[in-house]
């Protein structure tokens, strides 16, 4: 693992043979007129010689030791007498075909397997620009299996080792576990999703490849680079202390100073780096191998992101890694949430303040992971948005909410359902079609579904989101702007997006019965929106005073613990019947 040439990692990084001539050994060429006795003498004097190439008026044929032996021994033992007078050209097997030097290895394997069984594993004659070569079949198979191994351990886009390489290195690292020298840098590009969304995936790929080149240049032979997936990279460092590791990390950030130029556009790309050092990990943790260290570095990166991007975060026991290691753990478990059936939807009733009847319910996601236990949506939704996992989860939520709606319709208790949708789900432009498909699948009228959107993740392309919302409204759905008044939901969004409902954040409602100016703002807001035909829902209503005040202000609907908490559908029937 240290930078010696004999390490398994470095040998894996050498250029691999790609075609037959990369494997060939220059052949011993004999003229077609050479006599069998001369050839016999050649093979006897060189035990390592497996075959010679026979040249005859510009063409070549392969004469193997086995073939000559067979000819000279003969089936009845008369071969020697019969064949000693023959020439090399006469002794050549009838059908001996040569292969081209530039034939790629997989095609060569194919060609070998198509040969008749009796000669399938015989050496090959390969014609290259530099002259005839001899290649053994076992070398071809060995090279192809090395090619597969290489492919399984490398990322095709950047050519860097992938995450599996880290596992591959485990045995090596295990021996050095607990020594202070090991460190991992976890590198995550900032807002890379918006590069993909804005410039397209091709440009995104080009940026990742360019980043990999800069990374390689800046790290040099001080560490082993890996692409962990997406926009996440890692550098495994050996023989470093904190200062040396930070120097490498700073070098990486410096290498991003110059903007990336893609298709004539200048892209500012920045990264956030998490650092974890072997010294900081308990000996017990270290036994689990470098994955633990990687998880800590991931946690350090996440914390650094929260503190502002484009920086280096460090995690050690002194830095209370637990919550951040937990975030990394959550990220690792997220992809299995849907497949493990670990997700459920709870439903919170929404009360119509004018009639005192239930107007519908809001679907709220619950995740109970078999390793981590229950994880709150506030904890995992932002991470799922960051990793993109929210697309799959969001599709699951929509499908399930529609299925629930169907079973309530069938039970004779139809209920309007509001579903939370992340801005990330608008990126592909397929959300209206996906929603239409989910409604059709379960036979649910569009009027019974509302989507709630919040600005937790910045909306990169407002016009694109607006046009999809318009399409949904035209289909008959309700569209609500969620968490209004919180940091995430702004007046700008209210103007830019077509809406049917506005949900006032619970932080505002909390103070409505104690702060007069808050009450004044809310009253004005409700009046203005009502005039515009937008319905207003108050969230987080916990006290009767709040409810009374809201009703008096003309607020249309309300939800909160005072009315009912989010509940599993089974608990529902008793409360809402
Ligand atoms: P949200 O959409 O604002 O949902 C309301 C949150 O307030 C829910 O938290 C709910 O349990 C809580 N709540 C309800 N009544 C009261 C109350 O009287 N007082 C207080 N303090 N809280 C109340 P929950 O279920 O933990 O969800 C948190 C957030 O996670 C949601 O906020 C929403 O932004 C997000 N989320 C939940 N489910 C989904 C989902 O399916 N997709 C997406 N993209 N986000 C979701
Ligand atoms: Ca909501
Ligand atoms: Ca909300």
Description:
The chain has 577 residues and is α/β, with parallel strands linked by helices. It folds into three domains: 8-144, CBS-domain (Roll); 163-322, Alpha-Beta Plaits (2-Layer Sandwich), CATH 3.30.70.270; 330-575, TIM Barrel. 44% of the residues lie in helices and 21% in strands. It is built from 24 helices and 23 strands. It has an eight-stranded mixed beta barrel with strand order 15-16-18-19-20-21-22-23, surrounded by five helices. A five-stranded mixed beta sheet has the order 9-10-8-13-14, sandwiched between helices. β18 (417-421), α18 and β19 form a beta-alpha-beta unit. α10 (192-199) packs across α11 (201-219) and α14 packs across α15. The longest helix has 21 residues, at 390-410. It is elongated, with a radius of gyration of 35 Å. Mean pLDDT is 86; it is low at 1-13 and 316-321. The structure holds ligand C2E and calcium ion (2 copies). One calcium ion is lined by residues 362, 420, 452, 482.
Question: Concise description?
Answer:
Helices cover 44% and strands 21% of the residues. Strand 3 and strand 4 (59-64) form a beta hairpin. Helix 10 (192-199) crosses helix 11 and helix 17 runs parallel beside helix 18 (431-442).
- Going across the biggest sheet, name each strand in turn: 15-16-18-19-20-21-22-23
**Roughly how many Å apart are the termini?**
67 Å
Structural class: alpha/beta
**Which descriptor suits the 3D outline?**
elongated
Low-confidence stretches: 1-13, 316-321
The count of DSSP E runs of length 2 or more, i.e. the number of strands, is 23
CATH topology of the largest domain: TIM Barrel
| CATH architecture grouping of the largest domain | Alpha-Beta Barrel
- Put simply, the count of helices is 24
Provide the β-strand percentage band. Answer: 15-25%
CATH superfamily of the largest domain: EAL domain
Can you summarize the main beta sheet? 8 strands, mixed, barrel
